[in-house]
Design the sequence.
């Protein structure tokens, strides 16, 4: 088989990364960007060391929690691990940074005249932030855990789309707040870098994953209709290899096999179809 023919008959839309790799990248990636910004672009000598230390703690907690979540036997356990990791990160360093941030400036000013009331409001705000953070981290585990447990080419792209949106949505919300005047003390380069790295890039990856899912399904439909040369969808049988990669598991009762038709120009070609991947059926 010539190199051009091999390229033509290569299985299209192979996974960019496994669901587990996507999960870890989403859980740690945005926090890694914050660490890089804290190291390269300090906002002031007073909080430079604290920002780096908190970013390191945040990454460590996210990594450990995600590793435990991936190995959990049940989805609820995975969600609990990730939520606990987020709470641990905030309680270790994030709460201190929140109390020192610009968001708490009005409460610090009010504390001079109404210390008890301001303290209660600050504690309530901290509790709300901790709860929202734990819920948001848990959402990622809730969505990606079943995709990790049932790997397939389509689930890899589903994980990519979901994880990218999970990263982009909260940072896009902060961007909207900046448009309405919140965070005026934040330098422009910080806003611009956050938008490019934490909104634009994840948004592009989410669009890429969604397009790959759609194009793969369209390609399989054309193969099923016999409109793609060199490929065929056949019924599953006992002669097919046991560990075929799964292109898409739709949960249906019938499992079929994506097979490559032998090249007619190949001198010692086999008369049997070359079974490449599983399509349809219940996830393994």
Sequence:
């Amino acid at each position: 088989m010539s190199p051009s023919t091999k390229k033509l008959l290569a299985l299209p839309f192979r996974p960019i990364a496994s669901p587990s790799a996507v999960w870890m990248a989403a859980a740690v990636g945005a926090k890694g960007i914050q660490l890089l910004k804290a190291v390269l672009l300090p906002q002031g000598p007073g909080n430079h060391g604290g920002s780096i230390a908190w970013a390191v703690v945040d990454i460590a907690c996210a990594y450990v929690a995600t590793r435990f979540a991936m190995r959990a036997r049940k989805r609820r356990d995975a969600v609990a691990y990730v939520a606990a990791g987020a709470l641990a990160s905030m309680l270790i360093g994030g709460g201190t940074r929140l109390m020192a941030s610009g968001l708490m400036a009005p409460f610090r000013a009010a504390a001079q005249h109404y210390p008890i009331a301001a303290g209660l409001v600050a504690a309530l705000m901290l509790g709300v932030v901790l709860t929202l953070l734990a819920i948001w981290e848990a959402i990622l585990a809730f969505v990606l855990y079943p995709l990790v447990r049932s790997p397939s080419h389509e689930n890899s792209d589903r994980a990519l789309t979901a994880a990218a949106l999970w990263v982009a949505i909260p940072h896009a919300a902060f961007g909207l707040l900046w448009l309405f005047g919140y965070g005026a003390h934040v330098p422009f380069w910080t806003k611009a870098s956050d938008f490019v790295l934490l909104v634009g890039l994840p948004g592009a990856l989410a669009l890429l994953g969604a397009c790959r899912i759609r194009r793969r399904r369209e390609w399989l439909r054309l193969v099923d209709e016999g409109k793609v040369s060199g490929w065929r969808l056949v019924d599953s049988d006992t002669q097919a290899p046991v560990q075929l990669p799964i292109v898409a598991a739709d949960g249906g009762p019938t499992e079929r096999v994506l097979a490559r038709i032998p090249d007619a120009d190949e001198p010692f070609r086999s008369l049997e179809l070359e079974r490449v991947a599983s399509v349809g059926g219940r996830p393994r």
Summary: The longest helix spans residues 188-224. Residues 1-8, 99-103 have pLDDT under 50 and may be disordered. Helices lie at 3-8, 19-40, 48-71, 75-100, 105-111, 115-149, 153-179, 188-224.
